[in-house]
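Troubleshooting entry. Yesterday's outputs looked truncated, so today I'm pasting the complete records for two proteins to confirm everything comes through intact. If either block looks cut off, that's the bug. Protein one:
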Amino acid sequence: MNFTTKIFAFLCVCSQLLFSQSKEIQFLTGKDVEQTKEWDFWINSGRKSGSWSKIQVPSHWEQQGFGSYNYGRDYVTYGRNFKFHDETGVYKHKFTIPHSWKRKTINIVFEGSMTDTEVKINGKLAGEIHQGAFYEFKYDISDKIQFGKENILEVKVSKMSADKSVNNAERLADYWILGGIFRPVYVEANPKEHIPWTAIDAKADGTFRSNIYVKGIHSANNIIVELFNAENILVAKSQLQIQKEDTVKQIQFSIKNPKLWTAETPNLYKAKFTLNKNKKTISQTEEKFGFRTIEVRKGDGIFINGSKVKMKGINRHVWWPETGRAITGNIDLMDVQLIKEMNMNAVRCSHYPPNTSFLKMCDSLGLYVLDELAGWQKKYSTEIGKKLVKEMVARDTNHPSIIFWSNGNEGGHNFDLDAEFAKYDLSNRSVIHAHHKPGNAFNGIDCNHYEDYYSTKKILEDENIYMPTEFLHAQDDGGGGTSLADYWELHWNSKKGAGGFLWAFVDEGLARTDFNNQIDVNAINAPDGILGPHREKEGSFYAIREIYSPVKIDLKTLPNNFNGTIPVENRYHFTNLKDCRFEWKLINFKTPFSSESGFDIVKTGKAESPDIQPTQKGKINLNIPANWKEHEGLLLTATDSSGKEIYTWAWKLKPNDEISKQFSKSLTKINPVSVVENDSLFILKSDEKEFAIGKIDGLLKSVIVDKRGKKMTFKNGPVFVNGKMELSSIKSFGEEQNQLIEAKYKNGNKIIWKLNSNGVLELNYEYSLSGDFQFSGVSFDYPENYVINAKWLGKGPYHVWKNRLHGQTYNVWQNLKNSTRTGQSPWMYPEFKGYFDDVSWLQLDTAEGKITVGTKQEKMFVRLFDFYGIYGAKGYPELPIGNISFLDAIPPLGTVLAFNINDKTESIGPESEPNHLNGTFKRTLYFYFGLPDLGDENKQFTMPKENILTD
C-alpha cells in the first residue's frame, strides 16, 4: 500500500469514526411533500375507505383522494348537531436498520401528524398516543428494532382527537381541517451517550450561555463548546466537566464585538457541542444562533439590542393549495422572500408552530417571529398543553428570529401554561396573549385584535405597549394595505406603538380532489390574504411595500422649483441610508397607438447615498442633468445593502394640460364640422363621424365612426354621479371652425360638447357639491363584453381605493380584460375592473374599435365596469351609475369587520372618511373614436413622437 493509499484509507476511517459519533438519520417518508415515499394505507370512512391501498407520505390524506373535507367552521354551516368526520387512517411501512446502529439510541421522529397518533414497531407500542397536530414528537425504539432485518412500522392517525381540549384548540377553527402524517418521519441514531438538545441564550454584549442536555452519561467527562462566525472561523472555545448521570449542564463565556442579529442584519453564528471522554469524541451536535438582546420596557416599547423596534408584520398560515399544510422548504423560502419584498420585518406563525425550515429562513434572511402555541379560540388542557409547550419550545428555542412566544389566540390561552415556556427557553423570551378583547394585556403588551383607528389612539394613551397581533382583516380586497398608512403613522409616531400584524398572508384556498382540483376558499371564510393561494399578488401587496418602505419618500408631485433634491426619512431601526443605493432614470412614455406599453429610458444616473441615521430625516440629491424637464418621467429606485430593491418611485414630469395640447397637434387632418337636428337630437358631424346628443338631457346617445355608418356603443353620458340631472336649457352654436352644444341643469351643473375640426370630441363639464360624498364626477355606458384590453398613462397597474392609493406608480400600463374578483378564482391579477388613479389618457381596445379618452386637468380617476371590494350579502361599496366613469373623487374601502360590525368605514382612519367636497369642479375630456386618419390609407399606421394624448 503506497503512501497516498494509506492516507486515503486513514481519512476514510477518520470520516467513518466522525460519522459514527454524530447523529445519523434515515428518512422513512420523503423529506417533504415533493419527495414523498409510498406507504400502505387504509382509512375507515370517506373516499376510498375500507380497503388497503397506497398513499404518498408526507401528505394530507384528503389531498391523496382519501376521506372527506372539513372546514373548521363547518359546525356553523351544518348546525348544532354537526360532527366532524372522525376519520382514522392506518399506515404501514417496512424499513431496515443497519447493524452499525446496534449499540446506539434509536428514536423515531414525527415532525407533524394530524392528530392523535399511535405508533407501533414490530407490533409493540412505541409509547403513549401523541395528541396535538403541529408538534414534533419522538419515541425511543431502541429495544423494539431488529437490526439488519425488516421492521414493520404501523401508525394509526385519528383526524379528530380523543381529547376534547385538543379538538377545541386545533380543530374548531377558522381554517381547513385536514388529516394525516403531513411532515416527515425519520429514525435517528445517536451514541448511547449524547446531547439530545441544547438551549442557547446569546446576548448583544457577547455573552453566550447554553443549557446542554445530555443523556446516558456514564463515561463521558467533558463537553467542549466552540463558536464559529459566518465564515466558519473559530471565535471562541470553552469547556466544562460532566459527571455520570448528569442530565443538563450550563456553560457561559463571552466573545468581543459580536456581529449582532436583527431583522436588518441577520448575522448568524454556529455553536458546536462536543461530548468527550478525555480527548476521545463521543458525540457532536451543532446549532446556529444569533447574538441579540430582546427587551420589553413597559410603557415604552420593544427593544432589540437597545434600539426600539416596531413590527411591520403579517399573519401566515403554513399553506399550499395542492398539498395543504404539507409543504416544502422552497415554499418557506418563497414566503419569507415575499414578506421581505413587502418591506415587512415580522411574521406571526398563526396559529401553530411552522416547519423548522421556515424558521431557518427567518433566521438567515431576517424576520422577527411570533411562534404560537395552537388554540384558535379555545385552549388546551393543562396536562396536554404542558407537553406541547415543551415540544414546541425545545424544538424552536435556538432560533434568533423568535422574539416572542404566543400562548394561543383569541381566548385560546391557558394561563397555567404561561410559566411553562421559560422552563425550556434559557433566554426567557416574553410570552404574549394574542387576544381579541380589550383588557387582556400580558407582560406589558396589549395585543388586542381589530381595533379601529380611533380606539387604537386611545389604547396608545394607556400604560401598555400596543402591538395588535391581528388588524386590518384582508378578506376580499378590504383591509391589508387599505388604510394601513394611517395605522402605520399612528404606531410610528406613538411612544408605545409597536406596530402590528396584518391578517393575513395568503388566501387559504384548497385544491379539492373531490371536485376535480377546483380551489375552494370556503365562501367568505378563507379569502383573507394579500396574496392568492399560489402567491398571486393583490393590490395591497404593493401598497404595503410602499407604506412600509424604510426609505420613506412622501413627495407626490415634483414642485415647480424642483432642483433634484428629495426629502427622505430613514425608517430603518439599525441601518444608515448611506448603506443603501439610489439610482434615477429619465424616461419617455410609450404612446397610446403604439403596440407597446411602458417607457423608454433616456438617461440614468446614481445619486449619492445620504448619511442619515435610523429614524432621522434628510435629503437625497439626485444630481440629475439640467435639461431634465425635456423628458416625460423620473424614476428613483432605492436598493438595500444586499442589492435588493426597496421601492421605485415615479413622477410624471409634464402636466396634462401640455399632454392635451400635444393631442391636438398630432391630428393634422382638418374636416369641416356641422350640426343637424331633429325632434330629439343634435347631431354633430365631421367627415365620417357623427355624434348624437339628446335634446332632453344633453347626453351622448350614439357614435358613428365611418361612412358605412358603423356604430360604437359608447353612450348615456356624461351622467353626474351625484344628484339629479334636470335640464333647464340646451342650445347649439358655432365657434370658429368648431361646433358646440351647451346643456345647463337646474342644479347649476353644465355640459358643453365641442366637436373640433380635427375629429376630437371635446367635453367640458362643471358641477358643484357641498357635503360628504363617496364619489364625484361623470359616467358613461359601454358594454363590458365588447372590451378586449385597456391601456393608460397613469398610476397602475392595480386598481385603487381612496384609502389605498399607495403602491401604484406612473407608467403606460396595459391590462387584458379579466373578471377577477379579488380573493376568488381565477386569481388573475391585476384586476381589470376598478378605480384607477391619476389617469392622463385611457385607451380601450374593443370589438368595435379603439376608444381613446384624455383629460386636460390633473388627478383624474377612471372607473372601469362593475366590481366590489368586499362581498357579503351584497357587494360593497356601492358603485356610481353607469359602468365607465371619469371621477374627481372615489370611495374608501373598509374591512369586512369594520363594515359588518361598525358599519362605518370612516372608523379605520382619516383616509377612510368619505370625500369632504365643497365647491365647483371642472374638467375637460377629449374623446377620439377609432384610429386617426393621417391621410395615407396605403401606409401602415405609425404615430410620431408627439402622439395622441401622450407627453
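Protein two, checking that the full record survives here as well:
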Amino acid sequence: MDLLEREAVLQDLTGHLRAAVVGPGRLALVRGEAGIGKTSVVNRLAQLADPGIRILAGACDPLAAPRSLGPLMDLAPRLGQAVRGALTGALAGTCRPDEVFDCLLADLSSYPSLLVVEDVHWADEATMDLLRYVARRLPSVPTLVVTTYRDDEIGRTHKVTALLGTLAGYPWVDRHDLTPLSRPAVARLARGHTVDADELYEVSGGNPFIVTEVLTAPTEAIPATVREAVAGRLAGLSAAARRVVDTLAVLGRRVPLPVLSDLLPASEEALDEAVAGGIVRTDGQLSEFRHELTRLAVLDCVPAAHRLRTHRQVLAAKRSRPVTADDLPLLAEHADGAGDPAAVLEYAPAAAAHALASGAHREAAVQYARALRYADLLPLGRRASLLEGHSLACLASSRLDEGIASRRTAVELRRALGDRLREGDDLRWLSCWLWPFGRTVEAGRTGLEAVRVLEGLEPSRELARAYLNLCQLACRGHEEPVVTAACAEKAIALGERLGDTGVVVQARFHAAVADLLGSGSGWEECEQAVSGAMGQVPPEDAGFLAFAMCFFTALRRDTSRMTAAVDRAEAHCLDHDLLPHLLCTRAWGSWGLLNRGLWTQAADAAQRVLSHPGSPPVVRALASTVLGLVRARQGNGQAWPLLERAAGLVDSGCLLDTGLGWEARVEAAWLGGDPERGQAEARSGLDALAERTHPWLSGPLACWIRRTGGTPPQVPAAGPYALELAGDWRGAAAQWDSLGCPYEAALVRLSGDAPALHQALAAFEELGARPVVARTRAVMRAHGVRPVRRGPRRATLANPYGLTIREMDVLKLLDESLTDAEIAARLYITPKTAGHHVGAVMAKLGVHSRQEAARRLHDPKL
C-alpha cells in the first residue's frame, strides 16, 4: 500500500535525523489518531536512514498493568552490556531507575542512533520518566528520539499531557501532526479496486487504516478488523459512556449536544469519557464520530430495543417543532428507524425531492428507496411517481441497473392507469438510458414505442423530447445523416412551438454532428451548440452534449479538439455532480490519451474507470478495450480477455457504436501474429456496418484488411484512411501527424520507403510498442534496409538524470517504495521487465539501493 501525503513529514524527520546524528540531538513528537499511519511513517524513516545509523525501536503496550520500561526492554538486545545489566538490576529491584537512564544516555553518546518509542499514550510511569530524563539531555548525544502517540486519546489529566508540558520549553523538540488523507489520495489508493472512492472517503474520513481494511475486504459492509478495533475501544468504556456512544450512533454522525442532553440528561462526564476513548469528538455544540464507518460499527452492536426507543424519541421531539428542509433527511431516517410507515411516506419523498433539486443525487436515491419500501400503502399514481423519482436519482448517480428497473415498473403502472402521457415519457427515459446500459437494440425499439404513444396525444414537450431521443440514438448509432436530420427537424419544430429551448439546442447540436460525421463540416455549429447549452439548458442536458462532443471528436481521432472537449466536459460534470456523464467523459478521455501515444496514462485512466462501481456497461466496455489495446501494443499479453469482456458487456450494435470495439480486435489479432483472424474480425465489423454509412468506422476496418494482406472491399473511408486505401501513405502519415496520432502515423509508414521505415521504427521504440518494433525490423530486413543504431533520444538527453521516459516512471514508483511486481502492475509490464528497468535506473544513478535511488529523485546532487 502506498504511503501517501506523508512526504513533508518524512522530509522533516530525515532532516532532523541528519542534524541529530552530528549533534546536537533532537526529539520529534509524531501524533495523530489511531490508524493514521504513525508506525508506517517511523518504519519508512528507519528505511531511509543511512546504513551507519543504529536503529533502536521499542513500543508501549495496552496492558492493564503496563510493563515497567517496556520500550527499553524491546530494544535492549541492541544496546551495550552496561545498559542491559542496569535494566536487569532495575527490574530486580537492585538498581535505581536513574542508573538505567545514565547507562542509556552513555550508550547513545557512543553511536549515532535513531531511537523510536511508539504508543507513548500507553506508557508506564518509569518510561515517562525515562523520556523526560533523556529529552532534557538530548543536545549532548548524537541521537534523534521519535515518539508516537494518539492525540485522540489524551485528555487534560493524561500523563502524556503532563509530559508535553515538560517538553514545551525545549527548542530541540519538534512536533509533527499526521492528518487524514485527502479525497484524491483515497482515490489513488482505491485505484484498481471496484469501490466508489468518494463513498470510501466519506465512510473512512481519510483514515489510512480504515481505507486499507475496506479495500482488503470490499464485499463486507464493515470489515471485521474495523469492527474488532471499535469493539476493543468500546470495551474500555463505562456503562454510562457506552450508553452515550450508542445513542450518538443512532442519532447520526454529527449530533447537536442539546439533542443528546434532552435524551440523556447529565451525560457530560460520560461524553468526556467517550471523547477521551477516541470514539467521538466534540466541536463546539456538536458531537461527531471520527469516521462514519466507526459509527456504523457501533450502531451494528446497539440493542434493537434501544435503537427503536431512541428513534421514536427523536422523531417525536423533532415533529413537535417547525420542520425545515434541512430536517427532512433526519426525520425520514428516524421515521424509518421508529417503524412509522406514515411518517416515512411523509418525509422521505420530500427529503428525496429536496436532495434531487440540490444535486445530491445519491441522497435522493437513498430517500426514494426508503419510501418505496412502504409504497404498497400508496395509490398506484403516487407509487409510480416515487419510482420515477427513484429512477432519475439512480441514473444521475450512475446506478443504472436500479434506475432502469424502477423506470420499467413505472411504465407498467402508468399503462395500468391509462396515463398515456407519462407512459410515453417513461418509455423515452427508459430508451435514453438503455444505450449506456449496452442495450442498443432495445433502446431503439423502446424509443420508437415512446414516439408512437406520444404521437397519439396532443403535441407536448414529452413528444419533443421523444423526437430528440430518436435523434440522439440515430447519431450515436451512426445511422444515415438523413435519418438524424429528420429526427432533429421534428424535435426543433416542436421545441420551438412549445418554447422548449433545451430541446432546440440539443437537436441542432445533433444535426450538426450528423454533418460532422458525414462530410466533416459542422465543427463550429457543434461548438456553438455546446457553448450555448451551458447557459440555456439544465446541467444534465448540457453535460450530455459536452461528453457527446468527446465521443464524436474521438471517432475522428482529432486529439487536440478531443483534449479540449474532455477538459470542458469533466469540469462541467464535476461542478454539477453528474457522475454517469463524468465516467463517460473519462472513458473517452482514455481513448484520446491512447491516440496521443500516452499509453501509460491511457491505461491508468481506463483502469480508474473500471475501478468505479458506477461505471455503466458501455463505459466499462470502452475502458476495457483501451486497456486491452495498450497491453497488446506493449506485448504484455492478456489483451484478449479484456476485449472479450468488453464484447460481453454490451450487445453487438453497441460495441460497434463506440467506434473502437471491432478495430481493436483486428489490431490485437495482427499484433498476435494471426492475420487470418484479423481479417475475419474486420469483415465481421464491416458486415455489422452494412446498413450504415460511417467512413470513420468502415475506413479503419478496410485498412486493417489491407495491412493484413487481404483485398479491402469498396467501403466509405474518411481522412487518412481514404488516403491509405488509395495508396498515398505519405499523405495518410502527414494527416495522422497533424491529428496528433503518432502510432497510427507510424503504422502507415510501414508501407513506405527506407526513410519512412526508419521513422516508423523510431516512433515504435519511443512508444514502447515491442511487437511492432519486431515486425518493423523484419520488414526492414525483407527490404534490405539496415536499422540505424541511435544514440540517446532527445527526452533522455534533456533528463537531468540521463534516464529515459520509462526509467523516470520507474524512479517515481521507486519513490513510493513499490516492489517490482507492483511497478509492473502500475506500468502494465512484466515483473521481469520492471526488474530490468530498476537495475538500469540504479546503474545510471550510480546508487546501490532502491532507497538511494528514490532519494535522488528529490535531490540530484546526492
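Both blocks look complete. Sanity check on protein two: The CA atoms of residues 58 and 71 lie 4 Å apart.
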